[in-house]
């Protein structure tokens, strides 16, 4: 038997574990699933004969190293900052490793040792990062093989609620880590390049600079810029590209509404608020408003944000019950961002019958034989239920598929890497189609940022 160790059995591991269990007999696999919660690991294995659930604390060095030594390959589904100890053990005991997380500086620093030991450390092989890299490189490589030169690449991705479960005014529910949603866009200006010019969007302007996207059968979406679109320029071989922009997808109207929280200061995570434990929701919003002897919190909020009486923005705030004087925050020494996350979780948590949805949209502009052309590539994936969500499917399946490919010697280029090479993306994208992760590519007229170009002006 070939031994796979999976560390972390959380939400994103559901489809990953299911896939490997279904392949276990055919591929001669024994899968150990380790999690701090033995009960969670047991639930995910469903008494499968080729699986062994264990309680695993990665801070227990002896136990961690013992389990890694027994494995042929290690899958880490831990939070990103916790991969590095596992990675160092994998180098020490000469084990291949797979994660869905961004390559950290600490992980990249292991590259020489990983290569010297002939190991594959595959990272960024989830959804975003992951499927975005693979689907983008497939088209970029095809354009290059025809002799085309890339001039524009835009890439958008979003975890949303499926249309049949979209029943609030924000057209949004938490389908992934709520904290990441609340802190989105912080930590520096968004930077990208448009028509050869570097562009920057500071955090306080981020949610008012959006692009619109149309996806057939699903309607209109908007995208706001990710923090650093330029870091993949050289990775994708796009150093000379004129336009490079990566963004996050939401339903139209979300960003404008979210900007209210940004402008009030509710997304700040840098300081604790006094008396947060006993604070009411109404006290929370009032904390960010000027004192007035007679105006109510509602009137002050409207004046501060410039919201008219009949504006849908007002209804969105009311829907969250933000002005309730009887609902208590109940969090000690909480930051504004932590309190906001708590309040939103009351309204935006997925219900048992809800389904989630992933939308990905790439635009490729290129020049060939003196002519400018464009390809749009779109993918929509809808979850099955609360266990096998679209997010779990799109994050977990590529991880599982890459693991099998590495075990079978199909992916063999050593080093700390991401899935941008044909030996990696080609078989995985093909297999993902069997699970409903299908990209529809369409030839489009190239517009760039000059719509009048089509009019011949």
TrEMBL record:
Entry superkingdom: Bacteria
Keyword field contains Chaperone: no
Coiled-coil ranges from the UniProt annotation: none
Saccharopine dehydrogenase-like C-terminal domain mapped to chain residues: 126-436
Keywords assigned by UniProt, alphabetized: Oxidoreductase
Keyword Nucleus attached: no
Annotated Saccharopine dehydrogenase NADP binding domain residues: 4-122
UniProt-recorded name of the protein: Saccharopine dehydrogenase
Organism of origin: Flavobacterium solisilvae
């Amino acid at each position: 038997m070939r031994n796979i160790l999976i560390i972390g059995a959380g939400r994103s591991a559901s489809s990953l574990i299911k896939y490997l269990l279904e392949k276990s007999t055919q591929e001669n696999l024994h899968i150990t699933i380790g999690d701090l919660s033995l009960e969670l690991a047991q639930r995910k294995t469903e008494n499968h004969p080729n699986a062994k659930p264990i309680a695993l604390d990665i801070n227990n060095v002896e136990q961690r190293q013992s389990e890694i030594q027994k494995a042929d390959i290690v899958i880490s589904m831990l939070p990103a900052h916790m991969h590095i100890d596992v990675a160092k053990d994998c180098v020490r005991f000469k084990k291949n490793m797979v994660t869905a997380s961004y390559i950290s500086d600490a992980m990249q620093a292991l590259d020489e040792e990983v290569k010297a030991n002939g190991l594959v450390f595959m990272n960024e092989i989830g959804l975003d990062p992951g499927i975005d890299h693979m689907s983008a490189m497939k088209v970029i490589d095809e354009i290059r093989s025809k002799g085309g030169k890339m001039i524009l690449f835009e890439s958008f991705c979003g975890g949303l609620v499926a249309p049949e479960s979209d029943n609030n005014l924000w057209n949004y529910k938490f389908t992934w880590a709520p904290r990441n949603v609340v802190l989105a866009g912080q930590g520096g200006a968004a930077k990208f390049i448009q028509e050869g010019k570097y562009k920057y969007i500071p955090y306080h302007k981020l949610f008012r600079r959006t692009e619109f996207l149309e996806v057939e059968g699903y309607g209109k979406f908007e995208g706001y810029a990710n923090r650093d679109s330029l870091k993949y320029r050289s990775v994708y071989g796009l150093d000379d590209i004129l336009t490079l922009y990566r963004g996050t997808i939401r339903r139209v109207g979300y960003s404008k509404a979210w900007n209210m929280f940004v402008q009030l200061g509710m997304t700040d995570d840098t300081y604790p608020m006094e008396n947060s434990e006993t604070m009411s929701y109404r006290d929370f919003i009032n904390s960010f408003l000027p004192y007035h002897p007679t105006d109510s919190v509602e009137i002050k909020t409207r004046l501060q944000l410039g919201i008219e009486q009949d504006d849908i923005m007002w209804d969105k705030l009311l829907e969250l019950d933000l002005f309730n004087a009887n609902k208590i925050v109940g969090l000690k020494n909480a930051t504004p961002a932590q309190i906001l996350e708590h309040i939103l979780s009351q309204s935006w948590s997925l219900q048992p019958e809800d389904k989630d949805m992933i939308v990905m949209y790439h635009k490729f502009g290129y020049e060939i034989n003196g002519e400018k052309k464009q390809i749009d590539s779109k993918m929509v994936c809808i979850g099955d239920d609360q266990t096998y969500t679209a997010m779990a499917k799109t994050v977990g399946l590529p991880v599982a598929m890459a693991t099998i490919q590495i075990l079978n010697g199909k992916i063999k280029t050593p080093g700390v890497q991401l899935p941008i090479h044909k030996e990696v993306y080609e078989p995985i994208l093909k297999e993902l189609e069997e699970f409903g992760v299908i990209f529809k590519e369409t030839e489009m007229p190239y517009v760039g940022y000059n719509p009048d170009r089509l009019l011949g002006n």
